[in-house]
């Protein structure tokens, strides 16, 4: 805390945003004067914040009080001094500090998404392994729209025109939004966010930002803050940025591809490669674990009703858990690399996923394969779409059913977390089903 106090004083910080991530990935917390922050060395929040839905609702009372203390007590949120960042868009010198959640006895709270990722990383540490990830975040820029019933439209760029058609990897199309991206890069640099390449993706005004590889917890923190940063930069330039998995009809969905590898924590050598550079058994077991358990853990990577609109056959989003080398039709792609840099790219998570949970789930699936010695299927050399080896749930309802009955997830993530997560997502799904869509009004209103 002394180092943190010095950091705040050096930057003349006057306010601190104390943050935790809820299940959806929304930043919850308090804004406090720096003097009060230092005096209290953290904050208290109702534990129920971790069972809040994206609509602000909660799970039914019987379940609510079985997962939480009946007195609705506060949890203790302690700042992580390695997760302190400036807020470069704030009018006054402000810091944002990510907190960890504990009960009054000092035990990590199971419902906390950040604690879940820490639990998975501890499993690897016990084996002497160090996982490394490199996320890729896709998103759309759109016109600001106040009416949620209206379809989203591409924003107007520097040329004064809307983008039309597909502009994959177009430099000029990306440059249409140079002022916005310059602010984004400046603000990310000010926060120390490790972003790398910017590309124009396949969709209209769809972009992708790649993060440099590194520690999974640090990168989950950075994605959590990057979403805030990009939205602020977009608002400054009078456009909107969305990480919805499928925000626009007839356009590609947005993914959060996760590249993951595992090193020996002592030597730093990849455990995915043999001495001769060939694929190790641990690497194949890691793939086997992803194939076996992703169908059960899918709600952690595709958490919303909208997430499943992205999974359509013969589109840019894979609908399988096949694997192959340099094969983008597979849900699990092995990019071409040196043996030391051998990795698997999990292409199934959506950009709408909570980064803490998507990374935790992806690493846990791979860990279970390594722990249980699971062998993968044969690699696909060609179009994985033609294999039709789906094995994935088709709807959020099906996915939640499978997650709820997965013994391994309950064992490693805990009963309270699995039960609470499934319950929150079911409430959101019920809310969704109460809304009548424009498709229903257009094709059923006067026809049936």
TrEMBL record:
Organism domain of life: Bacteria
GO terms, biological process:
glutamine biosynthetic process; polyamine catabolic process
Q: Which InterPro entries match?
A: Gln_synt_N_sf, Gln_synth/guanido_kin_cat_dom, Gln_synth_cat_dom, Gln_synth_gly_rich_site
Q: Which cofactor does it need?
A: Mg(2+)
Q: Which segments constitute the GS catalytic domain?
A: 113-448
Q: Which UniProt keywords apply?
A: ATP-binding, Ligase, Magnesium, Nucleotide-binding
Task: Determine if ATP-binding is one of this entry's keywords.
Answer: yes
One GO MF term on file is:
ATP binding
Record flagged with keyword Chloroplast: no
Q: What protein family is recorded?
A: Belongs to the glutamine synthetase family.
Which PANTHER family does this entry report, sorted A to Z?
GAMMA-GLUTAMYLPUTRESCINE SYNTHETASE (PTHR43785), GS CATALYTIC DOMAIN-CONTAINING PROTEIN (PTHR43785:SF3)
Annotated protein name in UniProt? Glutamine synthetase
According to its UniProt entry, this protein's organism is Billgrantia montanilacus
